[in-house]
Design goal:
Blueprint: E1 5-9, H1 23-31, E2 36-39, H2 41-45, H3 49-52, E3 61-66, H4 72-84, E4 87-89, H5 93-100, H6 102-109, E5 116-120, H7 130-137, E6 145-148, H8 158-161, E7 163-164, H9 170-184, E8 191-196, E9 200-211, E10 214-220, H10 234-243, E11 247-255, E12 260-267, H11 282-285
Parallel strand pairs: 1-2, 1-3, 3-4
Antiparallel strand pairs: 5-8, 6-7, 6-8, 9-10, 9-11, 11-12
Protein backbone atom coordinates (compact mmCIF):
# COMPACT_ATOMS: atom_id res chain seq x y z
CA UNK A 1 0.00 0.00 0.00
CA UNK A 2 1.30 3.49 -0.84
CA UNK A 3 2.37 5.78 1.96
CA UNK A 4 -0.03 8.39 3.21
CA UNK A 5 -0.08 11.79 1.51
CA UNK A 6 -1.17 15.18 2.82
CA UNK A 7 -3.98 17.45 1.74
CA UNK A 8 -3.09 21.11 2.29
CA UNK A 9 -5.34 24.11 1.77
CA UNK A 10 -4.68 26.09 -1.39
CA UNK A 11 -4.02 29.81 -1.53
CA UNK A 12 -7.43 31.44 -2.12
CA UNK A 13 -5.85 33.95 -4.53
CA UNK A 14 -3.49 31.53 -6.27
CA UNK A 15 -5.22 28.17 -6.03
CA UNK A 16 -2.36 26.19 -7.57
CA UNK A 17 -0.19 27.14 -4.59
CA UNK A 18 -0.35 26.22 -0.92
CA UNK A 19 -2.02 28.65 1.46
CA UNK A 20 0.83 30.87 2.73
CA UNK A 21 0.02 29.91 6.31
CA UNK A 22 0.99 26.31 5.54
CA UNK A 23 3.81 26.78 3.01
CA UNK A 24 6.55 25.84 5.48
CA UNK A 25 4.66 22.77 6.64
CA UNK A 26 4.03 21.60 3.07
CA UNK A 27 7.76 21.97 2.35
CA UNK A 28 8.58 19.92 5.47
CA UNK A 29 6.10 17.23 4.40
CA UNK A 30 7.69 17.09 0.92
CA UNK A 31 11.14 16.84 2.48
CA UNK A 32 9.88 13.88 4.50
CA UNK A 33 8.91 12.21 1.21
CA UNK A 34 5.18 12.86 1.24
CA UNK A 35 3.06 13.47 -1.81
CA UNK A 36 1.05 16.69 -1.57
CA UNK A 37 -2.35 17.60 -2.99
CA UNK A 38 -4.35 20.79 -2.54
CA UNK A 39 -7.98 21.34 -1.61
CA UNK A 40 -10.03 24.53 -1.68
CA UNK A 41 -11.02 25.26 1.91
CA UNK A 42 -13.36 28.11 0.95
CA UNK A 43 -15.25 25.89 -1.48
CA UNK A 44 -15.49 23.15 1.14
CA UNK A 45 -16.99 25.51 3.72
CA UNK A 46 -19.42 26.80 1.11
CA UNK A 47 -20.66 23.26 0.45
CA UNK A 48 -19.12 23.01 -3.03
CA UNK A 49 -17.21 19.91 -2.09
CA UNK A 50 -16.73 18.78 -5.70
CA UNK A 51 -14.81 21.91 -6.53
CA UNK A 52 -12.94 21.64 -3.25
CA UNK A 53 -11.30 18.34 -4.23
CA UNK A 54 -10.99 18.66 -8.00
CA UNK A 55 -7.19 19.10 -7.77
CA UNK A 56 -6.76 15.81 -5.90
CA UNK A 57 -5.61 13.17 -8.42
CA UNK A 58 -8.03 10.29 -8.79
CA UNK A 59 -7.03 6.96 -7.24
CA UNK A 60 -4.05 8.60 -5.54
CA UNK A 61 -4.41 6.75 -2.25
CA UNK A 62 -4.89 7.77 1.36
CA UNK A 63 -4.37 11.22 2.83
CA UNK A 64 -4.18 13.16 6.04
CA UNK A 65 -5.69 16.63 5.94
CA UNK A 66 -3.57 19.52 7.21
CA UNK A 67 -5.11 22.95 7.24
CA UNK A 68 -7.73 25.26 8.65
CA UNK A 69 -10.49 23.92 10.88
CA UNK A 70 -13.39 22.23 9.13
CA UNK A 71 -16.85 21.74 10.71
CA UNK A 72 -17.48 18.07 11.36
CA UNK A 73 -20.35 17.93 8.88
CA UNK A 74 -18.21 19.39 6.11
CA UNK A 75 -15.40 17.01 6.99
CA UNK A 76 -17.78 14.08 6.48
CA UNK A 77 -18.66 15.51 3.06
CA UNK A 78 -14.95 15.78 2.26
CA UNK A 79 -14.49 12.13 3.16
CA UNK A 80 -17.28 11.10 0.78
CA UNK A 81 -16.04 13.33 -2.05
CA UNK A 82 -12.56 11.83 -1.81
CA UNK A 83 -14.02 8.32 -1.81
CA UNK A 84 -15.79 9.17 -5.07
CA UNK A 85 -12.34 9.98 -6.50
CA UNK A 86 -10.89 6.68 -5.31
CA UNK A 87 -9.08 8.30 -2.37
CA UNK A 88 -9.48 8.12 1.39
CA UNK A 89 -8.79 9.98 4.62
CA UNK A 90 -6.70 8.27 7.28
CA UNK A 91 -8.83 10.03 9.90
CA UNK A 92 -12.46 9.16 9.19
CA UNK A 93 -15.34 11.48 9.93
CA UNK A 94 -16.30 9.77 13.20
CA UNK A 95 -12.77 10.00 14.59
CA UNK A 96 -12.45 13.61 13.47
CA UNK A 97 -15.63 14.56 15.30
CA UNK A 98 -14.56 12.62 18.42
CA UNK A 99 -11.27 14.51 18.75
CA UNK A 100 -12.42 17.86 17.37
CA UNK A 101 -15.62 18.41 19.37
CA UNK A 102 -15.71 18.42 23.17
CA UNK A 103 -18.67 16.02 23.58
CA UNK A 104 -16.69 13.44 21.61
CA UNK A 105 -13.72 13.36 23.97
CA UNK A 106 -15.04 14.61 27.32
CA UNK A 107 -16.14 11.30 28.85
CA UNK A 108 -12.73 9.73 28.25
CA UNK A 109 -10.90 12.71 29.78
CA UNK A 110 -13.47 13.57 32.46
CA UNK A 111 -11.14 13.00 35.42
CA UNK A 112 -8.36 15.03 33.80
CA UNK A 113 -10.25 18.14 32.71
CA UNK A 114 -12.53 20.78 34.28
CA UNK A 115 -16.15 19.75 34.92
CA UNK A 116 -18.27 20.47 31.88
CA UNK A 117 -21.87 20.55 30.66
CA UNK A 118 -23.29 21.52 27.28
CA UNK A 119 -26.44 22.11 25.28
CA UNK A 120 -26.69 21.71 21.47
CA UNK A 121 -27.47 24.91 19.59
CA UNK A 122 -27.32 25.57 15.85
CA UNK A 123 -26.27 28.88 14.25
CA UNK A 124 -29.34 31.09 13.90
CA UNK A 125 -31.45 29.05 16.33
CA UNK A 126 -33.43 31.06 18.86
CA UNK A 127 -31.43 31.46 22.05
CA UNK A 128 -33.06 29.82 25.11
CA UNK A 129 -33.86 32.02 28.08
CA UNK A 130 -31.94 32.50 31.29
CA UNK A 131 -33.82 29.70 33.06
CA UNK A 132 -32.42 27.11 30.65
CA UNK A 133 -28.82 28.22 31.15
CA UNK A 134 -29.25 28.48 34.91
CA UNK A 135 -30.58 24.93 34.97
CA UNK A 136 -27.65 23.71 32.90
CA UNK A 137 -25.14 25.44 35.15
CA UNK A 138 -26.58 23.82 38.29
CA UNK A 139 -24.68 20.64 37.50
CA UNK A 140 -21.44 22.59 37.93
CA UNK A 141 -22.36 24.13 41.26
CA UNK A 142 -21.32 27.61 42.34
CA UNK A 143 -18.15 29.44 41.41
CA UNK A 144 -16.71 30.92 38.21
CA UNK A 145 -17.06 29.33 34.79
CA UNK A 146 -16.13 29.53 31.13
CA UNK A 147 -18.43 29.74 28.09
CA UNK A 148 -17.39 28.22 24.75
CA UNK A 149 -18.80 26.06 21.97
CA UNK A 150 -17.91 22.46 21.08
CA UNK A 151 -14.60 23.62 19.55
CA UNK A 152 -13.52 27.14 20.54
CA UNK A 153 -13.90 29.91 23.08
CA UNK A 154 -13.80 33.70 22.75
CA UNK A 155 -10.97 34.08 25.27
CA UNK A 156 -9.82 37.29 23.62
CA UNK A 157 -13.20 38.77 24.61
CA UNK A 158 -12.73 37.39 28.11
CA UNK A 159 -15.03 39.58 30.16
CA UNK A 160 -17.89 39.93 27.69
CA UNK A 161 -18.06 36.54 25.98
CA UNK A 162 -16.02 33.96 27.90
CA UNK A 163 -15.65 34.30 31.68
CA UNK A 164 -18.55 34.15 34.13
CA UNK A 165 -17.46 35.28 37.64
CA UNK A 166 -20.28 33.33 39.31
CA UNK A 167 -22.27 30.64 37.51
CA UNK A 168 -25.13 31.07 39.98
CA UNK A 169 -25.60 34.66 38.72
CA UNK A 170 -28.22 33.78 36.11
CA UNK A 171 -28.37 37.23 34.52
CA UNK A 172 -24.61 37.48 34.08
CA UNK A 173 -24.44 33.92 32.78
CA UNK A 174 -27.17 34.58 30.22
CA UNK A 175 -25.48 37.83 29.16
CA UNK A 176 -22.11 36.17 28.52
CA UNK A 177 -23.73 33.30 26.61
CA UNK A 178 -25.78 35.72 24.50
CA UNK A 179 -22.70 37.76 23.60
CA UNK A 180 -20.68 34.63 22.86
CA UNK A 181 -23.32 33.34 20.44
CA UNK A 182 -23.59 36.78 18.80
CA UNK A 183 -19.85 36.91 18.17
CA UNK A 184 -19.63 33.33 16.90
CA UNK A 185 -22.37 33.96 14.34
CA UNK A 186 -22.37 31.20 11.69
CA UNK A 187 -19.18 29.68 13.12
CA UNK A 188 -20.96 28.47 16.27
CA UNK A 189 -19.85 24.83 16.52
CA UNK A 190 -22.29 22.33 17.95
CA UNK A 191 -23.73 24.30 20.82
CA UNK A 192 -22.94 26.08 24.08
CA UNK A 193 -20.50 24.59 26.58
CA UNK A 194 -20.12 25.62 30.23
CA UNK A 195 -16.94 24.65 32.04
CA UNK A 196 -15.95 25.11 35.67
CA UNK A 197 -13.11 27.62 35.93
CA UNK A 198 -9.79 26.35 37.27
CA UNK A 199 -6.90 28.74 38.05
CA UNK A 200 -3.81 27.95 35.99
CA UNK A 201 -0.22 29.18 36.22
CA UNK A 202 0.34 31.92 33.60
CA UNK A 203 2.33 30.55 30.67
CA UNK A 204 2.27 26.99 32.00
CA UNK A 205 0.63 25.46 28.93
CA UNK A 206 1.88 22.92 26.40
CA UNK A 207 0.50 21.19 23.32
CA UNK A 208 1.26 17.48 23.05
CA UNK A 209 1.08 15.74 19.68
CA UNK A 210 0.05 12.08 19.74
CA UNK A 211 0.36 9.57 16.88
CA UNK A 212 -1.21 6.15 17.42
CA UNK A 213 -1.38 6.77 21.15
CA UNK A 214 2.25 7.81 21.61
CA UNK A 215 3.47 11.35 22.40
CA UNK A 216 5.76 12.26 19.52
CA UNK A 217 6.20 16.00 20.12
CA UNK A 218 5.63 18.54 22.87
CA UNK A 219 5.41 22.11 21.62
CA UNK A 220 4.57 25.45 23.10
CA UNK A 221 0.95 26.46 22.77
CA UNK A 222 0.50 28.76 19.74
CA UNK A 223 -0.73 31.54 22.06
CA UNK A 224 2.55 31.43 24.03
CA UNK A 225 5.18 30.35 21.47
CA UNK A 226 8.15 31.34 23.64
CA UNK A 227 7.09 29.27 26.66
CA UNK A 228 7.65 25.52 26.58
CA UNK A 229 6.55 23.37 29.52
CA UNK A 230 7.19 19.72 30.35
CA UNK A 231 3.88 18.19 31.50
CA UNK A 232 3.39 14.75 33.03
CA UNK A 233 1.77 12.50 30.43
CA UNK A 234 1.07 9.07 31.96
CA UNK A 235 -2.65 9.53 32.70
CA UNK A 236 -3.18 11.61 29.57
CA UNK A 237 -1.62 8.88 27.43
CA UNK A 238 -4.04 6.31 28.83
CA UNK A 239 -6.96 8.57 27.91
CA UNK A 240 -5.61 9.25 24.42
CA UNK A 241 -5.27 5.53 23.77
CA UNK A 242 -8.80 4.93 25.05
CA UNK A 243 -10.13 7.63 22.71
CA UNK A 244 -8.54 5.63 19.90
CA UNK A 245 -7.97 8.38 17.33
CA UNK A 246 -4.75 8.15 15.34
CA UNK A 247 -3.50 11.76 15.34
CA UNK A 248 -4.62 14.06 18.14
CA UNK A 249 -3.36 16.90 20.29
CA UNK A 250 -3.89 17.64 23.95
CA UNK A 251 -3.46 21.10 25.45
CA UNK A 252 -2.29 20.83 29.03
CA UNK A 253 -2.09 23.59 31.63
CA UNK A 254 -0.52 23.61 35.08
CA UNK A 255 -3.09 24.35 37.75
CA UNK A 256 -2.02 26.55 40.64
CA UNK A 257 -1.95 23.52 42.96
CA UNK A 258 0.70 21.87 40.76
CA UNK A 259 -1.61 19.43 38.92
CA UNK A 260 -1.46 19.20 35.12
CA UNK A 261 -4.93 19.42 33.56
CA UNK A 262 -6.22 18.80 30.04
CA UNK A 263 -7.89 22.00 28.85
CA UNK A 264 -8.54 20.91 25.26
CA UNK A 265 -8.29 17.93 22.94
CA UNK A 266 -8.04 18.41 19.19
CA UNK A 267 -7.67 16.59 15.93
CA UNK A 268 -4.02 16.87 14.88
CA UNK A 269 -4.96 17.75 11.32
CA UNK A 270 -6.32 21.15 12.38
CA UNK A 271 -4.22 21.90 15.46
CA UNK A 272 -1.85 24.82 15.14
CA UNK A 273 1.91 24.79 15.60
CA UNK A 274 3.77 27.70 17.23
CA UNK A 275 4.79 30.46 14.83
CA UNK A 276 7.87 29.47 12.82
CA UNK A 277 7.55 25.74 13.57
CA UNK A 278 7.25 23.73 10.34
CA UNK A 279 6.39 20.46 12.07
CA UNK A 280 9.90 19.06 11.92
CA UNK A 281 9.88 15.27 12.02
CA UNK A 282 6.14 15.13 12.65
CA UNK A 283 5.25 14.56 9.00
CA UNK A 284 7.68 11.68 8.65
CA UNK A 285 6.02 9.93 11.59
CA UNK A 286 2.64 10.24 9.86
CA UNK A 287 3.64 8.73 6.53
CA UNK A 288 2.96 5.09 7.23
CA UNK A 289 0.62 3.07 5.00
Amino acid sequence: MAETGFLFCCDPLRPRRTDPEFTREAAAARQAGARISLIDHDALLAGDVGSAVDRVPRDSGSYRYRGWMVPSGRYAELELALADRGCSLRTGGADYRAAHELPGWYEVFEELTPRTVWRPLSPGEALPGADVWAGLAQDLGSGPGIVKDFVKSRKHEWDEACFVPELADRDRLASVIRRFVELQEDSLAGGVVLRAFEPFVPGGEARVWWVDGEPVRVTAHPDTPDLLSAPRLDAVGEAVRTLGCGWVTTDLALREDGVWRVVEVGDGQVSGLPAGDDGGSLFGLLLGP
